[in-house]
Design a protein that fits this description.
The structure is a single chain. The protein has 139 residues and is α/β, with parallel strands linked by helices. The protein has one domain: 2,3-Dihydroxybiphenyl 1,2-Dioxygenase, domain 1. 18% of the residues lie in helices and 28% in strands. The strands form two sheets. The chain has a four-stranded mixed β-sheet, with helices on one face. A four-stranded mixed β-sheet has the order 5-8-7-6, with helices on one face. The longest helix has 14 residues. The two termini are 28 Å apart.
Length: 139
């Protein structure tokens, strides 16, 4: 059986800059691997991390000398947040239960799991530098 060719549209990759990789990387590694993304190491690149999805898209977390400031501000022009899918409400609840121990700060906890509306099941959090993630239960 041959596999389907890779998609020609959709997300190729997303690169997030962080002020301190040593602080942010453990939180992102826990989250991305919990969602089934595989970590990749690039030999000789100590200031970045990569996680790859099975659809071949990938997320990069990088510390750069060009970063300005110590934290992200989602209310300024630019990216507001990153939304990722999770399998179902059970997976969402499990991630929520462990997230604070891995450096994530929950947003809108008083409205969980419907902060995005009554027909939308999701969890919102910020990494140690204020980058917001929304996890959406699709099943």
């Amino acid at each position: 059986m041959t596999s389907a060719p890779p998609p020609r549209t959709g997300l190729h990759h997303l690169e997030l800059w962080t002020a301190d990789l040593a602080v942010a990387a453990p939180a992102w590694d826990w989250l991305m691997t919990s969602l089934g993304w595989a970590p990749e190491r690039v030999e000789g690149w100590e200031l970045g991390r990569i996680w790859r999805h099975r659809d071949d898209s990938y997320l990069v977390l990088e510390q750069s000398d060009d970063v300005q400031g110590a934290s992200s501000e989602r209310r300024r022009p630019g990216m507001n947040h990153l939304a990722l899918r999770v399998a179902d409400r059970g997976a969402l609840d499990a991630i929520r239960a462990e997230a604070a121990r891995h450096g994530w700060h929950e947003l809108f906890a008083d409205r969980y799991p419907h902060a995005g509306g009554e027909d939308h099941v999701a969890w919102y959090a910020e990494d140690p530098h204020g980058i917001e993630v929304e996890l959406v239960a699709v099943g």
